[in-house]
Amino acid sequence: MAKIGELIIEKTADGFYGKGRIRTMHMRASFDLLPVERQGDKAPSHHIVVYDGGEAVPIGAAWQNAQKRGDNAGAVMFSLRFEDPDFPDWAQNLPAYATSPDNSKPLAIMFDRSRNQDKGGE
Fold first, then answer.
1. Which of 40, 57, 89, 101 has a CA that sits 20 to 30 A from residue 69's CA?
2. For the whole model, what pTM was predicted?
3. By C-alpha distance, which of 99, 97, 94, 98 is closest to 117?
4. What residues have CB less than 8 Å from 40, skipping those under 6 apart?
5. Residue 49 or residue 16, greater confidence
6. CB neighbours (10 Å) of residue 62?
7. Using CA atoms, how far apart are residues 15 and 11, in angstroms rounded to an integer?
8. What is the pLDDT of residue 61?
9. CA-based diameter of the chain, in Å?
10. Distance between CA atoms of residues 6 and 61, nearest Å
11. Distance CA 48, CA 106 (A)
12. Where does residue 85 rank: exposed (0-12), middle (13-18), buried (19+ CB within 10 A)?
């Protein structure tokens, strides 16, 4: 896994909000993480949005979880899925994870290429 950005989380009465950024050789994006009402157990807990002229434009979704094992058990973790037709082909459905042992610090966003995606030799 490689660190491609970070996410700063703020807990409010309405849930967790976040401001993040991702930086790679081919992509630069600052985004907000906004909580949404889940429509089911597997539905996302957050939308990932950027702003264009003050209007929120969705570029993905996130699922909030708590780490279940290890030294960081109980720490907030987000599974991020960036999806946008303007992203380069390699970045479509980009899986990433944000976690931190101390919820008061920025969460590292880590790119995780699955074994299925790694078969192309790119």
1. 40
2. 0.78
3. 94
4. none
5. 49
6. 27
7. 6
8. 92
9. 46
10. 16
11. 17
12. exposed
